[in-house]
Amino acid sequence: MGRIAGRFPRVEPRRRIRSLVLGLLADLPRKNCWTIAEWAGEATPDGMQHLLNRAKWDADAVRDDLRDYVVEYLHDDQAILVVDETGDVKKGTHTVGVQRQYTGTAGRIENSQVAVHLVYAGQRGHAAVDRELYIPRSWTDQPDRCRTAGLDPDIAFATKPELATRMIARFLDAGHHAQWVAGDEVYGGNPKLRSALEGRSIGYVLAVACNHEVTTRAGKFHADALAKKLPERAWQKLSAGAGAKGQRFYDWAVIGLPDPRPGHRHLLIRRNRITGELAYYRCYSPQPVPPTTLVRVAGSRWRIEETFQSGKGLAGLDEHQVRRYVSWSRWVTLAMLAHAFLAVVRADEHARHPATDELIALTCNEIARLFITLAAQYVHDAAHRLRWSHWRRRHQARSQASHYHRQATAQA
To answer: CA-CA distance, 299 to 119, in Å (whole number)?
Structure first.
């Protein structure tokens, strides 16, 4: 919190931002301005809501501090940037960026809000360092709707790969370094993103669809057609990294893709050793690398799924109940900051106290539980709890009366 304190010119928001971040780490059944304000001992949620909506501070500046913090404490010369999107199911049509669209969170098309995240993954740990909200054309084509949600009415539509390119460029332009970028088919199938990475001599292992076309010395083929032509000796058993149940072994094959431009390009194919299911990756490296390196980068893509799961479960990343863009960017940035704190403490504890036969090393879940219990547990008397019960019931009564009034007016 001392690192970001300079982003808040007044002492009141500095103190409240600390309470909000601690509340994001607390073991609350639901994390929003109401529950966190009550947990922190405030009389009403007005201060927390003001902090997210109207207080003067720059969420992008805090994001930059967060990025520097993560790179400093999780630094790895072989670090990988992983990009992916996550969706939050929403009701109504007024929340910024919401529309009916596919979200992997639900596994189907839902009324949802989607954001693209960038995760820094190294040997010591991983944490999100940037975020961009995906604004669909149904919003960018309606300037008044954008203005109401706090967006620039002239905002231009950007695809998810374009948002990823923007975040990667921001990371590199800040003076940080990463050797590789990993992502799923949404990003691997985009030639502009691949060209941008090659232009900056950044290697990548990006998933592509089975019908993705590549050029070999024998001509152009779909990826799945090439897989069928491979002899059994072309496959080798390699681990994509350790998972929750041990090493993740697959069969892998690498096919060289000739190209007159500088660098080395390959099609990497993964085969499940039990089901035979195939997955395909477009690969680029400025210098020659062994297949084990490409496999390691491909396997790192799961780091972002772990980050989403941990960020949502421990830091309330998906529990924002806000409609405007400013509030969304502030909440998500602070949730990323809270999760990054856990990731850094975990990395430090693993270095100091490695796992033993009797105890596993501390997890982010256990660190959050211990930290809040031992270092930041607020204790409130019965009067505080009763005041909040009264406040909630009064607010809900006003909302109910307002709803009935609008309903009666509409029917008149």
So the answer is: 14
* Close Cβ partners of 189 (under 8 Å, ≥ 6 residues apart): 208, 209, 212
Q: What is the tens place of the pLDDT at every residue in 216-253?
A: 988 999 999 999 999 999 999 999 988 767 889 999 99
Asked if residue 154 lies in contact with residue 124, where contact means CB atoms within 8 angstroms, the answer is no
Report in angstroms the alpha-carbon separations of 11 from 1, 63, 215: 13, 20, 60
Contact between residue 247 and residue 239 where contact means Cβ atoms under 8 Å apart:
yes
Distance separating alpha carbons of residues 170 and 83, to the nearest angstrom: 13
**57-357 belongs to CATH 3.90.350.10:** yes
**Cα gap 334→174, rounded to integer Å:** 20
CA 52 to chain centre: 20
pLDDT digits (tens, 9 = 90+) for 101-152: 988 777 788 899 999 999 999 999 999 999 999 999 999 999 999 999 999 9
CB-based contacts of 3, cutoff 8 Å, min separation 6? 65, 69
Which residue type sits at 51? L
Cα(274)–Cα(101) distance, rounded to whole angstroms? 33
CA distances for 265 relative to 164, 207, 252, 256, 285, angstroms:
21, 14, 16, 6, 7
Tokens read off for 99: 């529309």
Band of residue 16 on the pLDDT scale cut at 50, 70, 90: very high
Residues in the chain, overall count: 412
- Per DSSP, the residues of 169-227 read HHHHHTT---SEEEE-HHHHT-HHHHHHHHHTT-EEEEEE-TT-EEEETTEEEEHHHHH
E strand or H helix that includes residue 264: strand 264-271
